[in-house]
């Protein structure tokens, strides 16, 4: 009985210790740690078995492991406070298109339904780019920066506001398109369609870590990182972005446990793969997150994600008055011309 209790307790303790480390310790751990929310939900089995059999040392250790895992996971289901931001609203839609297999008209229908201001697309192929143009995407999102590639490495940023090209991040053949969107009332908003390569094999681990590490950190600009990160909030690379100042839209609104992949049925060793949250919208400090939702998309193995944001208003030095001591300047929000 003692052996059985420790068999139920020790794996959760090991998982909690590895999860609390500041880095991902091994390729296999990178694949496993994505399922931390599911492990946290099962972790009370250890202390419950110890309690029923009066194995008190195992009980204390099991409670400690469960508490540590809960501390990592439970906040994702609780909404956070938001900054007092009163600038323009921006709706962001992101979708992984599964090697470009999503029908253009299905994507167009989703855009019509959601009515986003900015769309970030991953696994964006030349054929899908042509199909979207023929389907009339320009009538809804007339501006964009596209980096289509055959297979899974292409991406794009489409917008109803004018855009210009920003730096494109590329590792292992995966192009993470950057664009600067000129939002009325907010000025330049830097957007990246995020899609580092997936750490599916050991040889892909380096391009995954490099692709995450190369994403720009908040530096005073308004920035949005949106897409398929191939990482959850339990991966060290994504935690580094949060520690740098970004906020995850799902986590900030209490929707951080909404699974985004696999949407269609995936199996591993004969077992169904439970859904995990690898698609995200990250916003720089000062951006308020109003809502987050997931949406089904035909023929994709990911759910599309939608985030409603409020951006900081663009401010400029404007002379508003004068006195005997001279003019007084204040920061006043001004819309773009």
Automatic annotation (TrEMBL):
Record lineage: Bacteria, Bacillati, Actinomycetota, Actinomycetes, Streptosporangiales
Domain Endonuclease/exonuclease/phosphatase, chain residue ranges per copy: 93-302
Residue spans crossing the bilayer: 29-52, 59-78
UniProt-recorded Gene Ontology molecular function terms: endonuclease activity
Keywords carried by this UniProt record: Endonuclease, Hydrolase, Membrane, Nuclease, Transmembrane, Transmembrane helix
UniProt cross-references to Pfam families, sorted A to Z: Exo_endo_phos (PF03372)
Source organism: Microbispora oryzae
Protein name: Endonuclease/exonuclease/phosphatase family protein
